[in-house]
Design goal:
By secondary structure, this protein is of the alpha+beta class. The chain folds into four domains: about 140 residues, Immunoglobulin-like; about 180 residues, 3-Layer(aba) Sandwich (Rossmann fold); about 80 residues, Four Helix Bundle (Hemerythrin (Met), subunit A), CATH 1.20.120; about 30 residues. It is about 30% helix and about 25% strand. It is built from eleven helices and 22 strands. Strands 4, 5, 6, 7, 8, 9 and 10 form a seven-stranded mixed beta sheet that branches. A six-stranded mixed beta sheet has the order 2-18-17-11-15-14. Strand 19 and strand 20 form a beta hairpin. Helix 1 packs parallel to helix 6, helix 3 packs parallel to helix 4 and helix 8 packs antiparallel against helix 11. The longest helix is centred in the last third of the chain and has 24 residues. The chain is globular and about 80 Å long.
Length: about 475
């Protein structure tokens, strides 16, 4: 298709290339942006949407929960554009398709949307909770469609007590890469860890419904966002060198998810499927183990490359180089790249939030105060207003920096905080590919005595020990 009809793809890389002899890792932030996603094709790609609705007996009390679920389904169905394949499943200790009554999935149109709304109005609560069966049904239904964009919304209010031990994990393994799933918990008696696991494996979001009346708007937004995804398959292809290997790769914006286990490896080539994209931006933290003892001092060496691919064989840009430069000048190697420092700060914030919640759950208020005090400080420094808002439902922060625990905290407020611990702030625009190394107080210079790199403010060369004179910037 003509270039003006194609979406734009940008991959930018941020790192501090300088390594001290004792260093054993290289941290890199990858910023991926898709623009003009609405131009991905003359017609939207084939899309399928499933609503997986918990209809276990606990959804009947209070009755507002099952009614909120019905209303949310009707709202989501109303947003489906014509031509989208869709279905609604009643989920208990097993999963059953309630609209359409049998395969194939319905094609969204005025008549089918109205029929589906009538069908969900008849949902009733009764039975247990076995989430593995819900996901397996979704996998089966999606597998019988031609859709390249496949998305499910899962709603639950209960603990996964009807499942066999290990069944949910096994189902997630079968569903990985088959579809995306956003998970929501309603009420106060469900396990946020189950939803977090579902969302992390199936490339979605997980959150708590704070007020039943908010569910319809949330469902509508989730379905609209899924329909805005017009790039079905975007991949990061990474290569390593004999002296480097992958330690981990994580998505760090908009939420933090460890994706290391999802990499496909063939020799020194690793490929990470990132799923379907709309017009959006995501960031990834790539960490390489580096055998610094095998590097030559004072010269740029290739540690690896990263290339963005649209599908299996369509590069969406030139490879970006991950570079290492072994130096004895600790002033160069000890200053982290700003983007990397912010990402590691976000990770520490999430850890403090989760540790505080675990302490709060076991009624260890001293430990919770210590961890959440750290979380408030980090969230303030990072500008993470979402985490501060969620913390504010459990604690009151005083002007002196201290805080007091609120009375009458609902479990769902804590679930919202725990699930929100992975929400991050954007680290800012990455440097252009030609300028991805960290600069410290200016541009590194060449020592006029030995030619090796020195930091801009250095008075003495770390290699030859001679006083640094005005050299040529590198």
């Amino acid at each position: 298709m003509p270039a003006r009809e194609r979406p734009s793809f940008t991959l930018q890389l941020s790192q501090n290339k300088y390594l001290a002899p004792a260093d054993d890792r290289m941290d890199v932030v990858l910023t991926v942006r898709v623009g003009d996603a609405g131009a991905a094709a003359p017609e939207p790609p084939p899309t399928a949407e499933l609503l997986l609705v918990d209809c276990s007996s606990s959804m009947d009390w209070p009755p507002t929960k099952i009614e909120a679920a019905r209303h949310a389904c009707r709202a989501a169905i109303g947003t489906l554009r014509d031509g989208v394949l869709f279905g609604v499943a009643e989920c208990t200790s097993r999963a059953r398709l309630v609209y359409p009554a049998a395969l194939p999935l319905a094609v969204a149109g005025e008549r089918t949307r109205q029929e589906a709304k009538e069908a969900v109005s008849g949902l009733i609560a009764g039975g247990g909770t076995a989430m593995s069966t819900w996901l397996d049904l979704a996998r089966e239904l999606f597998g019988k469609t031609p859709a390249t964009i496949r998305h499910a919304v899962l709603l639950t209010d209960g603990l996964n007590q009807s499942d066999r031990p290990g069944a949910l994990e096994a189902a997630l393994g079968r569903c990985r890469g088959e579809f995306a799933c956003d998970a929501r918990g309603i009420g106060d008696n469900w396990d946020p860890r189950d939803l977090q696991r579902i969302a992390s494996v199936l490339r979605g979001s997980a959150d708590a419904v704070l007020e039943d009346a908010e569910l319809a708007g949330d469902f509508r937004r989730l379905v609209e966002r899924a329909m805005g995804r017009t790039v079905p398959d975007l991949r990061l292809r990474m290569t390593t060198m004999p002296y480097s290997r992958l330690r981990f790769v994580k998505q760090v914006f908009p939420t933090e998810v460890d994706l290391t286990a999802q990499c496909r490896t063939e020799g020194r080539v690793l490929e990470l499927p990132t799923g379907a994209w709309g017009e959006e931006l995501r960031e990834y933290h790539l960490c390489l183990d580096v055998a610094a003892g095998e590097l030559t001092r004072y010269e740029d060496l290739l540690l690896g490359t990263v290339t963005l691919f649209r599908g299996a064989d369509d590069p969406a840009g030139e490879p970006q180089a991950v570079v290492g430069y072994l130096t004895d000048d600790l002033a160069l190697s000890s200053v982290p790249d700003d983007h990397v420092a912010r990402v590691t700060g976000q990770a520490e914030l999430g850890r403090a939030v989760r540790a505080g919640w675990e302490a709060f759950e076991r009624d260890d208020r001293a430990a919770a105060a210590r961890e959440w005090g750290t979380a408030v400080r980090l969230a303030t420094e990072l500008g993470n207003t979402e985490i501060l808002k969620r913390l504010g439902r459990l604690i009151d922060v005083r002007a002196d920096g201290g805080f007091a625990f609120k009375e009458g905290v609902r479990p769902r407020d804590g679930f919202s905080l725990m699930l929100g611990s992975t929400i991050s702030t954007y680290t800012g625009a990455a440097e252009p590919a030609a300028a991805v190394v960290a600069e410290v107080d200016g541009v590194p210079r060449d020592c006029v005595h030995c030619g090796h790199k020195v930091r801009p403010s250095a008075k003495v060369c770390g290699h030859c020990g001679e006083p640094v004179e005005a050299g040529t910037p590198s």
